Amino acid sequence: MVRVPESLPARMYLLAYDLKRRRMPYTGGRLGYVLRGAALAELYLDGRLVEERQGPRPGTPGDDPYGLVAQISASRPRSWHYWVRKDSRAMVRRVRDELAAGGWIRVRERRMLGLFTARQVEVKDPRVVKTLWGGASSALQGRPVAHVNSYDAAAVALAAAGELNTVLPRPERRRHRRRISELSARTGPAAGAVRRVVRADQAAGGA
Question: What is the set of domains in the chain, with CATH numbers?
Answer without folding.
Answer: 8-201 (1.10.3630.10)
